[in-house]
Amino acid sequence: MRTSRLRTVHPVLWAGWAALAAGAVLCVVGWYGISGERYAERQLPYLASCTVPGAALIIAGAVLLARGRDSVAAARVEELYGLLVEDGPAEPEAVGRAVLAPLAVSGDLLMVPGGTLWHRADCPLVAGKAEAVPVDSKLVASGELDPCPICEPAEETD
Questions:
Q1: What is the average pLDDT value for the chain, to the nearest integer?
Q2: Starting at the edge strand that comes first in sequence, how are the strands of the sheet with 146-147 ordered?
Q3: CA angle, 105 then 111 then 112, to 5°
Q4: What's the CA gap between 28 and 49, in Å, rounded?
Q5: Interaxial angle between packed helices 2-35 and 52-87, expressed in degrees from 0 to 180 and rounded to the nearest 10
Q6: DSSP 3-state assignment of 40?
Q7: How many helices (H) and strands (E) does the chain have?
């Protein structure tokens, strides 16, 4: 997959570099021709035949290089996506167990003053926070605090 896509991209990059080089050569030739002429009417043919087409080739080369690099990036993304889809997870059962495993298992319940949720003590949202305080059972009973959806302390209390 990678080689077939990149083979179509490389000619675009080479064409871009060739257009840039040809445009630079034409601009130098036009400048050299203009610099040797004293009168404007004798400079005009160099300007029309070398400098303007040279500038156009430089712009075209820059566009081709930008397009080619975008294509190379797209080819690499497609290759990486193909590798991800092709391999997939090694053990689907292990992945399912990891998702179902509880995030926090502590029996102590905490809350942050002014917060709206109550958490297990080892919940990542309150673990290590000095301002976390034990939950008042009156707040839980009145329904002022909701259980944390991350550590799901409701399972333990029900």
A1: 77
A2: 133-134, 109-111, 117-120, 146-147
A3: 135
A4: 12
A5: 170
A6: helix
A7: 6, 4
Distance CA 78, CA 1 (A): 9
How far apart CA 72 and CA 6 sit, in angstroms, is: 7
Provide the strand spans (E) within the chain: 109-111, 117-120, 133-134, 146-147
Distances in Å between the alpha carbon of 134 and those of 67, 130, 155? Answer: 60, 11, 18
pLDDT tens sequence across 82-107: 777 765 555 555 554 445 555 666 67
The model's pTM? 0.41
**Which amino acid is residue 138, in one-letter code?**
K
Percent of the chain with pLDDT over 90: 11
In the numeric block, the tokens 């259980």 are attached to 147
Do the beta carbons of residue 109 and residue 121 sit within 8 Å?
yes
